[in-house]
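re: that chain from earlier
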Amino acid sequence: MIIDGHVHIVPPSIVRDRAHYMAADRWFGILHASPRARLVSAEELIHSMDDAEVDAALCFGFAFADNAICRLCNDHVLEAAARWPSRLIPFAVV
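^ sequence. v structure.
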């Protein structure tokens, strides 16, 4: 069994509007300034895991300074783990 020990996923809305969230959170902006810093949603992660033959992954969102955005990410992680319970192991961030 292959388990990825540290994967970040974000809701599709954050993937689509990356620039807005980079401007809204200094650390998120610094970490994701490079176009090579990919953002993926849970569904994209599952496809990538299938391609790489990874069985499961420990998933995290991002610790945004804004609690509402942080909650949005945590909800995405928890919903994804409920959808793929044998594949995704959720961790909430604060």
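The radius of gyration is 13 Å.
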